[in-house]
Amino acid sequence: MIDFKTCTEKELWEFVASHLEARGLSVVLVGGAVVSIYSDGGYRSGDLDFIVTSLFKEKLPKYMKEIGFIQFGRLYKHPDCSQLYVEFPTGPVSIGEDYNITPEEREVNGQKIKILSPTDSIVDRLASYLYAERGPHGERKTLEQAVLVAKAQPHNLERIRKWCENERHPEIFEEFLKELKRK
Question: Is 101 found in the same domain as 40?
C-alpha cells in the first residue's frame, strides 16, 4: 500500500496507473513527473500528468474515487497527499507534431503501466522549452529538465536531433548539447 503523506511521483504513478490498468483504463505518464522519476527525484514536479489512451475515459472519476481521490475540475487530489496531485490532459500522446510515440512499459502489481521513454521525455521537455507561453526559449527550466534526464538515463541523441529538425528548430538541439556538456 502507498503512504500518501510521503509518496514520491514514482510511487504515486505506480499506484494510480496500476489501479487504472486493472480496471481496463490504459494511461501513459507524461510531463514533469517523468523527469522526477528518471532523475531519481533530482526534480520534483508536484503533479502527475496521465494521458488516457483507451476508451471509456468517462469511467475515470469512478476509478479515481475508488482509491480515495476527489475531483476538482481537471485535477484529482487525495486528502492525505498534499504534495502531489493528478491531472488527465487531453490526448493523444504526442510531442509537438510527433504522434509516433511508443511509451515504455513496466510491470507493477501484475499490471503493465506506461511512461514516456527517456528519449521521449527529453524531447517532451525540449518541446515545452520551445513552445512555452512566452515564446521560443521561454521556459529555461524545461531545458534543464531535459538535461537532467539525459544525464541520468540512456537516450537516443539522433532521435532528439531529428525531432528538433522536424520541428524546424535545429538550434534547440545545439543548445541542448551545449547545456549537456556544460553541466
Answer: yes
